[in-house]
Amino acid sequence: MSETTSPHKRPDAQTTASSLELAHAAAQVSEDNRAKNIVVLDMRKLTSAFDYFVIVTGASRRQLHAISDEIDNKFEKELGDTRLGREGYDDSRWILLDYGDVVIHIFDDVTRDYFSLEELWAEAPRVDLSQVLHDHAANEASKSAPLSSENQF
Hints:
Elements: H1 19-32, E1 36-42, E2 52-57, H2 61-78, E3 85-87, E4 94-98, E5 102-107, H3 109-115, H4 117-120, H5 136-144
Parallel strand pairs: 2-5
Antiparallel strand pairs: 1-2, 3-4, 4-5
GO cellular component, one term: cytoplasm
Main location: cytoplasm
InterPro entries: Iojap/RsfS/C7orf30, NT_sf
């Protein structure tokens, strides 16, 4: 049974966060839960149904659930926003969270490749997340980099 209550943007959004802030928060929570390939698409010029798609990949059913649950917690408790609908949680190959202006897609690898939303919506500009997400790869590389000669005894 579907948990979706509305396929459209909120007509009277009374949230404390803008749709871009929500998209950024979803990306951050996803990264905090070790999601990969985090993409935010700006959909505002392509559809009036929503403003942003957040697309992320998780490695397991447990991880997809954790990402979904943590986004719900963040949005409800910290950002004052309530989910309008959720699809796919039980199947856990593609969880869709509908927050009206922001729609979050949490995929496993195979399902994300199959549906290829980034290609389907190729005209949508990608939101720059460089100021929002931590660069785990750079952090890991700096941890394993050799010390410079001036730092060695």
